[in-house]
Amino acid sequence: MSRIRVSAFRWVPPFAQGLVREFRVRWALEEAGLPYEEWLIGPEDQQTEHYRGFQPFGQVPAYEEDGLVLFESGAIVLHIAERSEVLLPSEPKARARAKTWMFAALNTMEPPIQNLAGLDLFHAGEDWVKQHRPQVVEAVRTRLAELGKWMEGREYLEERFTAGDLLMTEVLRILRHTELLAEFPALEAYVKRCDARPAFQKAMADHLAPFARNAPS
Ligand SMILES: N[C@@H](CCC(=O)N[C@@H](CS)C(=O)NCC(=O)O)C(=O)O
């Protein structure tokens, strides 16, 4: 059995708890049934040459498996999914469709959603944000409406849960500080459906545990 190690923050403020990108990797590993060790880091580690050898941008997550080092949550989830029928169907067309949705989550949905989260979580109340935010909200709403239309009458993006759904619902959860998802009941139900998976619940508990242990006093 390979030895897998995933970097995660020792502690982040409550607004970021549940949203750090290593959570996607934990969830994928749980779905795939692959055991792993967490590698807890802090801001001081992000700048070191050692950590940058694993993650050139100093971010979380970094992933190590028997001498293979990977970074970028999407690439790591894909690497894990390649070995798991739960995450990627072996039938070639279904497999390609699932990968298409993985890219759609990260490349079409996440940029506008992260843009909004960046404004709200890091720059709330600043003058330039007040002017710019309505446009950003509209960009998110447009994508949500399009995805919501696709999800009408569907439980998952394709016939069944795949790594595409894992990444898509992960990205949609970034909007938890807004009411936007509630405007699209099909999407809200879809996120709830995926969050109810035992692998999600286990990964979330493991993601949150270090924050409780290392909360500043
Ligand atoms: N595209 C990267 C983004 C990783 C990322 O943004 N990580 C955040 C935590 S969610 C981080 O480490 N932020 C600290 C920093 O950028 O210094 C991925 O998906 O892995």
TrEMBL record:
Residues 23-88 form the GST N-terminal domain. Gene3D superfamilies: 1.20.1050.10, Glutaredoxin. InterPro entries: Glutathione-S-Trfase_C-like, Glutathione-S-Trfase_C_sf, Glutathione_S-Trfase, Glutathione_S-Trfase_N, GST_C, Thioredoxin-like_sf. SUPFAM superfamilies: GST C-terminal domain-like, Thioredoxin-like. Pfam families: GST_C (PF00043), GST_N (PF02798). Residues 91-217 form the GST C-terminal domain. Signal peptide: none annotated. Belongs to the GST superfamily. This is Glutathione S-transferase.
